[in-house]
Design a protein that fits this description.
Strand 1 and strand 2 form a beta hairpin. The radius of gyration is 24 Å and the shape is rod-shaped. With 181 residues, it is mainly α. It has a domain of 124 residues. The longest helix is centred in the middle third of the chain and has 50 residues. Strands 1-2-3 form a 3-stranded antiparallel beta sheet, with helices on one face. It contains 6 helices and 3 strands, in the order αββααβααα.
Amino acid sequence: MFTELMPVINHRPLTITIAAVAGGNIRVCVVPQSQEKDRAINEKVGHRKEVAKIPDAAIQGLTASLSLTGTPEELDRELAEKLTTFAAAHEQLQHGISRATDQINEALQALEERDKAKKAKTPPSGKTGAKDDKAETKAGSEPPASTLPLDWIAQPAAPAAVSASDATAGHEDSHDESGKE
């Protein structure tokens, strides 16, 4: 049981409860605990509109519990397999969030460097011609596209569906991806 849970235990503490329920069955619950570091990257993003935050649903997924109910014999046969599947799904989510956190950190660092470079170019007296100010603002307003990881830059909202079937098709695709266990 603990061998199967090690991928989860390596990242966060777990609470395991085992209780007798009606009909001679047993209920086993495995609950990963939340940690302060789970939401830390979103707090770091703060007011930056150029960088997307990690969705709350993904962060909450890190603490999704597993609850199994069955006879002692059923649990003896199936518990290891269910725990392995649970741990693999958790590890995959944890890896995705870690990768996203790294990309967000890189994007924030690139934005900070851009802001520092922009400030360094500003003359200390603050008196320049209006033409120079406009040219500098336009040239320095966006970082080069290659410095930010594109999959975590906030994108404009998707256009509204043209017909009811478009809205349904798009909803089914996103449901299929989010409904995987």
